[in-house]
Design brief:
Elements: E1 4-9, H1 11-15, H2 19-28, E2 32-39, H3 43-49, H4 59-66, E3 71-77, H5 81-89, H6 102-106, E4 115-117, H7 121-131
Antiparallel strand pairs: 1-3, 1-4, 2-3
The structure holds adenosine-3',5'-cyclic-monophosphate.
Adenosine-3',5'-cyclic-monophosphate binds at residues 53, 58, 61-62, 92, 110-111, 113, 116.
Length: 138
């Protein structure tokens, strides 16, 4: 069972003024913030982060969107973090997201879906390392 996951509050949710609302839901669900930063991906850094999707038809659109404005990146801690966080955020496509989930409340479409959540322990570690050094984790 993992105890850490990685998240981003994406440019759509930042633009809509929902950083505070989303962090409140994350804290209320019992996640502790290990690391956090407000930053802005470039096309190149977004492409590197999402390299796993580079053969997908939506890769270009995804990188454009993720570099279209600032994001909040964070490492979160809780028992069963990866699975519990994916439950909290809901399905990738907000049309399929359960009531009460972050994406149901704040996401507009599969492309602009408010938040990212790691899909495995391995990717949580890789993604957290992409943004944070050991000195930035508390
Ligand atoms: P995320 O959890 O950040 O991981 C990969 C992202 O690709 C996903 O959220 C979506 O935002 C995006 N994505 C997945 N499917 C599509 C699609 N069909 N069209 C556009 N973007 C997509």
């Amino acid at each position: 069972m993992s105890n850490r996951t990685f998240t981003m509050i994406k440019p759509d949710a930042v633009r809509a003024g929902n950083i505070g609302n989303i962090l409140q839901m994350i804290n209320a669900a019992g996640f502790r913030i290990v690391a956090m930063k407000y930053t802005h991906l470039t096309m190149t850094s977004a492409g590197k982060f999402y390299e796993i999707h580079k053969e997908r038809p939506f890769y270009g659109e995804l990188c454009e969107f993720m570099s279209s404005g600032p994001i909040v990146a964070a490492i979160l801690e809780k028992d069963n973090a990866v699975a519990d966080f994916r439950t909290l955020i809901g399905a990738t496509n907000p049309a399929n997201a359960a009531e009460g989930t972050i994406r149901k409340k704040y996401a507009a479409s599969v492309g602009e879906n408010a938040v990212h959540g790691s899909d495995s322990d391995e990717n949580a570690a890789i993604e957290g390392n992409f943004f944070f050094s050991e000195l930035e984790r508390f």
